[in-house]
Design goal:
The structure is a single chain. The chain has one domain. Helices cover 71% and strands 1% of the residues. It contains 16 helices and two strands. Helix 2 crosses helix 12, helix 2 packs antiparallel against helix 14 and helix 6 packs antiparallel against helix 11. The C terminus is likely disordered.
Length: 421
C-alpha cells in the first residue's frame, strides 16, 4: 500500500486515484490469506479507500509546513487520515458479507450520516482545517466520520460487525499515525531544511500508505473472518456483453462522481456501484481493476493534452480508452488470480507513472528522479517476494495449520471453520 499510495499521489489523486492502493492492499492480503471471495473484497477495498479521496487536505498541509500553525495542521491531517482509514476499513469489512440488500442499506446509512455530518459541522465550518482567508475549501471530514460510525453500528446491529469494527478501528489508528506523522515529516522538513528541494509531499504519502496498509493487515490477521459468502461460480455473460456492461458501469461511476450536485458525489456513486457488484458478482473484478486502470489512463491523457500541451486531446483520450479495454480483457482472463492481478495492476500503474515522468516538460531527465526510481524498485521487490511465495516461501509472520493453510490469529480459525480443504 505504500507503493500504491505513492502512485496515487502522482497519478490523478482524488477518489479514483485512491482506488489504486485500495485494490493493491486487498490483493496483497489475498496472496497471503487465500479466500475465494477476495475479488469481491478487492472491489470493496478499491471503492472504500476511494471514498476518503473526496476529503480536501491541501490547505491543511499548508498549516503543518508553517511553525505557527504546525500543531493545528498536525491535528487536522491526523484526524482526516484516521477518518479515511476508518471508513475504508468499515467498507472492506462489509465486503465479507456482500448481500446486495445489506450493501444497499449500508450505502444509504453512510450517505445519510455523511449528509448530517456535512450539514452540522463541515458546511457551517464549525471546526475547520482549511484556510478561511484564501479560497476556503469545502470540507467533508465530519460527514465521513459519521458515515464510518454509522456503517459500523449498522453492521453490528445486523450481526455483521466483525471484522468491520476491527478494520475500522485499526484503520483509524493507522490513518492517524500515517497522515499525522507523515504530514509532520513534510512540515518539519520544510520548516527546518527549506534549502533542500526534496519530495516532502511524496514522503508523507509513502508513510501514510505504509501505516494504513499495516493497520489493515494487522486487522485481517487478528480477525475471525466470516465464512466465504457468494463464492459459488456465477456464470458470467458472453465476452461482448461482459465488456459492454463493465464499460457502462465504469462510465456511470465516473459520470455520477463528477456530476452529482453534492459534496460527496463519489460516496453516493461508489455505494451504488457496490450494490450492483453485490448483485452481479462477476462485475467485481472490473470495478476493482478495470475502473482503477481506466482512471490511471485518463489522467495520463489529461496531462498529455491539457497540462503539458504535448498534443491534441482526442487521440490521447482515444488511446486511453483502447488501453482500458485491453486491460479489461486481461482482467477477464486473470481476474480470479490474485498474484497475476497484483502484478498486472502494479506494473501497469508504475508504467503509467514512468510515462508521465517522461512527458514532463523537463524532458526524459525526469525519469532519473528518485521517486520514479523508487516506484520501480518497490514494484521489483513486490514481484520478487511473489516469486518467493511461488517457490513455497512462507513469511515468518505466517504460520500454517496441518494442511498447509495459512494461520495467523483469527484467520486460521476462519479457514478451519470454512469447510474448504
Amino acid at each position: 500500500m505504500m507503493l500504491g499510495w505513492g502512485l496515487r499521489g502522482f497519478i490523478g489523486g482524488g477518489p479514483f486515484g485512491a482506488m489504486i492502493p485500495g485494490a493493491m492492499v486487498v490483493l496483497t492480503l489475498a496472496v497471503l490469506y487465500p479466500r475465494r471471495d477476495w475479488t469481491m473484497l478487492a472491489a470493496f477495498g478499491a471503492v472504500g479507500v476511494g471514498f476518503g479521496g473526496e476529503m480536501t487536505y491541501g490547505q491543511t498541509v499548508g498549516f503543518i509546513t508553517k511553525a505557527e500553525t504546525f500543531w493545528w495542521g498536525f491535528l487536522g491531517l491526523g484526524l482526516k487520515g484516521a477518518i479515511w482509514g476508518a471508513l475504508a476499513g468499515a467498507v472492506i469489512g462489509m465486503g465479507f458479507t456482500p448481500r446486495w440488500r445489506l450493501v444497499l442499506s449500508g450505502g444509504l446509512v453512510m450517505t445519510g450520516a455523511a449528509w448530517v455530518g456535512w450539514k452540522l459541522i463541515n458546511e457551517p465550518k464549525v471546526i475547520y482545517f482549511s484556510n478561511l482567508l484564501d479560497r476556503p475549501r469545502a470540507e467533508i471530514w465530519a460527514g465521513f466520520w459519521m458515515a464510518a460510525i454509522a456503517l459500523v453500528a449498522y453492521l453490528a446491529r445486523q450481526g455483521k460487525g466483525q471484522p468491520a469494527r476491527r478494520m475500522a478501528m485499526a484503520g483509524f489508528v493507522g490513518g492517524f499515525i500515517g497522515f499525522g506523522f507523515g504530514g509532520a515529516i513534510q512540515g518539519l522538513g520544510r520548516i527546518f531544511t527549506p534549502e533542500l528541494k526534496l519530495h516532502w509531499w511524496k514522503y508523507m504519502e509513502f508513510f501514510f500508505g505504509f501505516c494504513f496498509g499495516w493497520a489493515l493487515a494487522w486487522a485481517t490477521a487478528r480477525s475471525v473472518l466470516p465464512a466465504e459468502e457468494g463464492v459459488e461460480d456465477e456464470k458470467a455473460p458472453a465476452v461482448g456483453v461482459e465488456m459492454l456492461t463493465a464499460a457502462v458501469v465504469s462510465a456511470g461511476l465516473f459520470w455520477l462522481a463528477w456530476n452529482l450536485p453534492i459534496r460527496f458525489g463519489y460516496l453516493v456513486a461508489g455505494s451504488a456501484v457496490l450494490v450492483v457488484v453485490a448483485r452481479y458478482r462477476w462485475l467485481a473484478k472490473h470495478v476493482a481493476y478495470t475502473v482503477t486502470f481506466a482512471a490511471v489512463t485518463l489522467d495520463l491523457a489529461r496531462y498529455w493534452s491539457k497540462e503539458y500541451h504535448r498534443g491534441a486531446p482526442e487521440p490521447a483520450y482515444g488511446l486511453a480508452i483502447v488501453a482500458s479495454v485491453g486491460f479489461g480483457w486481461l482482467v477477464m482472463r486473470w481476474g480470479g488470480d490474485a498474484r497475476k492481478m497484483l502484478e498486472l495492476l502494479m506494473w501497469a500503474c508504475v508504467g503509467d507513472a514512468l510515462l508521465k515522468f517522461a512527458i514532463n516538460p523537463a524532458g526524459l531527465i525526469a525519469l532519473v528522479d528518485h521517486v520514479a526510481i523508487g516506484f520501480v524498485l518497490m514494484a521489483a521487490v513486490v514481484s520478487y517476494l511473489l516469486r518467493r511465495l511461488d517457490r513455497g516461501y512462507v513469511p515468518p509472520a505466517i504460520a500454517t495449520v496441518g494442511d498447509g493453510s495459512p494461520l495467523l490469529g483469527g484467520v486460521g480459525e476462519a479457514i478451519r471453520g470454512s469447510g474448504r480443504p
